């Protein structure tokens, strides 16, 4: 496989941007490209952790399931993001499941090769640690929200957090409406009816508008105080 075809997308990762040619060749030699169909499981809870994954195309859903099989979505990851880091952190088994939200293309590296790369490139090791720390802080915030915030507040927090990756046009933020109300409910530990109710309330008060393609934040200040 052409090296450029295998590693071009790594330019979109902040932690890989400054790698040398030799280091990129190392990635080329030690990664496998794989396509995963929508809703296919990449790994489940308690699966052995041997690899780390880089998302080239599509979205990945990181979830936990309770003993009754109820899903709690921890995160939705997008192209340019890394997952499966437990293998590099010395964990033998997965603590969560990774599921393809769309048809996805992944780069897969064995954990021993990723550890080797991190030892070779101290700057990369530092940036990788930053990514894990930020993800841990985000998870901690969500757990705190479960304790201290109402269902409506958690749904509004989801919208506010989504603004970080949205398009801004004359103060109106457009978020790609790529998640169903059921998926948003699982991300916010609410239920589909509550998500629909909050969205309807916000739309009625001209705070948001939405269709099948986009959610538009019309008045961010009002959203913050809702």
From TrEMBL:
Spans traversing the lipid bilayer: none
Source organism superkingdom: Bacteria
SUPFAM superfamilies (UniProt xref): cAMP-binding domain-like (SSF51206), Winged helix' DNA-binding domain (SSF46785)
Keywords recorded for this protein, A-Z: DNA-binding, Transcription, Transcription regulation
SMART domains named among the record's database cross-references: cNMP (SM00100)
InterPro entries, per database record: cNMP-bd_dom (IPR000595), cNMP-bd_dom_sf (IPR018490), Env_Response_Regulators (IPR050397), HTH_CRP (IPR012318), RmlC-like_jellyroll (IPR014710), WH-like_DNA-bd_sf (IPR036388), WH_DNA-bd_sf (IPR036390)
One GO cellular component term: cytosol
Protein name in UniProt: Crp/Fnr family transcriptional regulator
């Amino acid at each position: 496989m052409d090296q450029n075809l295998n590693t071009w997308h790594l330019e979109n990762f902040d932690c890989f941007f400054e790698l040398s040619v030799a280091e990129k060749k190392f990635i080329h030699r030690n990664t496998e490209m794989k396509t995963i169909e929508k809703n296919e499981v990449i790994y489940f809870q308690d699966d052995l952790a041997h690899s780390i994954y880089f998302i080239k195309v599509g979205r990945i859903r990181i979830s936990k399931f309770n003993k009754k099989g109820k899903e709690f979505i921890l995160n939705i990851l997008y192209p340019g993001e890394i997952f499966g880091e437990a293998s590099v952190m010395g964990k033998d088994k997965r603590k969560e499941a990774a599921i393809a939200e769309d048809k996805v293309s992944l780069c897969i590296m064995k954990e021993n090769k990723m550890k080797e790369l991190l030892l070779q490139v101290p700057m990369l090791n530092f940036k990788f640690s930053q990514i894990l720390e930020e993800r841990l802080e985000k998870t901690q915030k969500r757990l705190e929200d479960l304790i201290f915030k109402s269902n409506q507040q958690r749904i509004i927090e989801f919208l506010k957090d989504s603004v970080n990756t949205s398009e801004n046009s004359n103060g109106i933020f457009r978020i790609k409406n790529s998640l169903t109300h059921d998926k948003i409910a699982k991300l916010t530990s609410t239920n589909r009816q509550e998500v629909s109710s909050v969205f309807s309330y916000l739309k009625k008060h001209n705070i948001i508008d939405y269709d099948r393609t986009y959610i538009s934040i019309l008045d961010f200040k009002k959203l913050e105080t809702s």
